[in-house]
Fold:
Amino acid sequence: MTVNLKQDVDVTVVGAGPVGLVLAAELALSGATVQVIERLAEPSGAMKAGSINVPTAEALDRRGLLPASEKVQRELLERVGAVARVAGGGPNDAGRGASESRFTGHFAGMILDADLVDWSDADLAAHASVDGARVVPQRELEELLADHVARLGVPVCRGVEVTTLEDTGDGVLVGTTAGAVRTGWLVGCDGGRSTVRRLAGIEFPGTDPELTGHLAVADIADPEKLASGWAWSTRGAYRHGPQPGRVVTVEFDRAPADRSAPVTLDELQTSLRRVSGTDVTLTALRGAATRWSDNARQAAAYRSGRVLLAGDAAHVHSPFGGQGLNLGVGDAMNLGWKLGAVVGGWAPEGLLDTYDAERRPVGAWVLDWTRAQIAVLRGDPRSAALREVVGDLLSTRDGTTYAVKKIAGVTQRIDLPGDHPLVGRYAPDLRLTDGSRLADHGHGGGFLLLDRTPVGALARAAAAWAGRVRSVTDAHATPTGVLVRPDGVVAWATDATDATDATDGSAVTGLEATLRRWAGAPSPAPEREPVG
Ligand SMILES: Cc1cc2nc3c(=O)[nH]c(=O)nc-3n(C[C@H](O)[C@H](O)[C@H](O)COP(=O)(O)OP(=O)(O)OC[C@H]3O[C@@H](n4cnc5c(N)ncnc54)[C@H](O)[C@@H]3O)c2cc1C
Structure:
């Protein structure tokens, strides 16, 4: 197979997993030239993530990909039956109550009861419109992203492995199995055992694994021998369902010997027999099974010179609570526009450093969220006692609402300057008087300014950044102005009534200062057209 690697691209992304694909798309939208290098000739098809959180769903929404993911979800529901708690009238939602149809998730296998959640909670209510598209298997998500990247003209060079790198100060020389490549920047989105991280000499401190987990769909000769839902024993835990044949096992007395060897039917059956204490028989695997552990580590730095890390390359942890893909997509959304700004020559001082500063705390939290679930899941008597206590707390309205908000990602906040309560949060779902939503205006990337001043004072001020900022005007309402970064984070907002007065510059001054901080010096250019 002939692979045409591009020379002298602005950015080369290593890895065509979900994170590499999101990053490549964001870079392309920012105007950078980019290519993706992927070791596998074809997508692996291994079972991994099955759901996405609110920031990921909203990131898809802002790029116009949500209708496609809703289609994926409808097809999934038709295939597997009424298992997912989702809104939006899926084929199996008939007769469900409003709260029952909302996505909740689980903590350490304890399913969070949708009827206990306070859905009127301000954080949840502000992000409700993407709830209909939260159940998206990783394989389908990757297909959707691959189409998106292809529409943006980004080449994905498959069957090529990165083997060496040299940071030359003004670029990176990358050795691959298809020859050498020179690139301005190199981003390792190459998974938990990242070659890029190792070659860049970035430390990966954390806690060692103590368990082996499996995820598979199998044909089971005698499924009646298994409990439905999660079941615990002194050897570990397992779950059969929600769809027939779907099996998760967790064994606490071992870390996987070889994580790269394919999972065999015999290995899965042995594991399931051990944790269930039954002689259940598996007759076939349906698709590729996955083996995982609770290795929890975070890169000591997300950047070394012209080499950066994102996704699992920057942090690994057990899949409990379904956070890894979401964490990586958040990295990619955060890094994409910042690296694009550096490449485009308009980045303000220190912009790229904010990538590590903003994403590290979220990564550290995810590692701890998964570690806490391991502590609850272990088979020993102390953990069993702890499980009882946590189970009781999760049976309360406050406890369930707390956990659902954490899992959904609606409490995430970046520490940014500004007094308005929206600053540093993902933009809420803002509906405009013309029937559109603010997210509908973000398909082409860039900053979004919502101006609800009657005289358009904010939009007029932002015109000086027209190549980077798209202004959307709307009827007067609170907040009167919101500036959303390309990654969906609110950089500035105001409720000030003086923002409605074109002659009073106080809100305008605040907006301009924020634009300089994130979007650089004013330099008008033709407003960008939506892409894709
Ligand atoms: C069983 C299981 C269940 C999970 N469930 C969830 C969930 O419900 N929700 C959630 O958010 N997350 C979940 N996760 C985690 C999620 O799957 C990962 O966090 C996600 O795949 C990370 O994406 P990534 O793009 O960073 O890395 P990957 O998906 O690992 O992609 C890395 C890519 O880089 C390529 N590559 C590696 N080395 C090289 C090289 N040297 N040269 C070229 N290419 C290379 C690989 O072939 C691969 O395609 C789960 C994981 C597992 C294992």
Summary: Residues 353-377 form the longest helix (25 residues). The pocket of flavin-adenine dinucleotide is lined by residues 14-20, 37-40, 48-51, 138, 161-162, 189-191, 195, 215, 290, 292, 311-312, 319, 322-326, 328 (CB under 6 Å). The CA atoms of residues 248 and 513 lie 51 Å apart. Residues 79-100, 526-532 have pLDDT under 50 and may be disordered.
